[in-house]
What does this fold into?
Amino acid sequence: MDYDVLILGGGIIGCAVSYELSKYNLNIALIEKDYDIANDVAPIDYSIVYDGLECEDISLAKLEFAGSKIMSELASKFNIFFEKKGYLLLADTKEGEKNLICMYNKALNRGMENIQLLDEEDVRKVEPNLRKNIKKAIYSKNTGIISPYDLAISYGEIACDNGVNFKLGEEVLDIESISKGFKVVTNKNKFTCNMVLNTTPGKNYSIDKENKVNQNLKYLKYFSIEKKLSKPYNNIICTMGEGDNKTCIIPGEKNKLLVGLKNDEKISCEEGLQKISGFIKNLSEENINDFYDSHFYDDFLIIDDSLIDEDYIKIIGKHYGQVTMTPAIANIVCRTVVNKLNCRLKKDFVDKRREFYKFRELSNEERKKIIELNKKYGKVICYCNKVTEGEIIDAIRRPLGARTIEGIKRRTGATFGDCRGTRCLYEVASILARETNKKMTDIVKDSKNSNIMVGRIKEFDKM
It folds into this structure.
């Protein structure tokens, strides 16, 4: 056998499972069709760490609650951003008030703690800067915010350092059951393994003809708001709007503000601004740093081990609370695999992410010291976010290093500032081409056929 375990899909769940399994004496590979891991994570600064309050299904609620309990410890271990924050779920209509009370009673029956049902006066005490008129609210102290991409990258980097073989840019074409184990066919190779963990929902293979996914999706639009525009909120604010629509305000570090709008249909930037104006006074297009369109999934996220006797496990579905559920799902899958393969813990497992520097967060004394060690940390490439050449090179050379502009952007913040790469994109691409020994015309934004340059004028060496 080539491998004991093959993990299909390098999303956040695949990376988390690879991290947990890398603690054991197993030969593991992860196959991902894209050029980078965690492409299923939206490129936003913060993701809500939920507590299961809004999940109608009790198994999903348990996964969210279990994941939220683990998150603080993981963030501390990986040295990534995480902050506990209260969560206010608001109702401003009679129908919303009725649904809210029903949700609150259901949560109490499940044994959920640290939640309260508040009237408008109590809400003002919890969140004095709230402008919206409300009927009732549920207030939870079990929630928080985390950097979702940093979490996924941390999982992947530690797994890679502990021996997991990441095969990026390979697409799985089929999985066949053989006399002992499986044969996995990709667009580049054929592998054999004892066990398969499939985290790519919706893909149908020979072993798995009935893999149907209910894509219960709606549309999400995120807005990044100027921090100087409004008074800071203390808590995550979420409204129960008409039908199934929602508005969510996520306050981040240094008074950053992220607004998410969930709708049945795609909405324009103007429509989004109108919805947000109920929370933020005097809002205009000039106050928007960035906006991003995504999807809101509300499927049943299922760990399907119905074929466990054949050594095949799959994760089915997509859910908006996937980031929160990921640590719990990874632990469950890991226990199942360990029991099935009867493996032991490694003695030399290194449960630590390699250190890195963020120039903008260092003091002047710390900056001087790092520049003395490496002068490239003294050359600023992205002036908006104060990202240096040394940071970009480190992001490329690390385990699972960036191979795309988007990969560098997510790891360092370069091209993610107010100018959106107008000033630094060429230099970032040049560094990436130099470090990976590629031509500028081969550098891509995020995936195949997303080249940032389709050709060059031969008379000029620079743009």
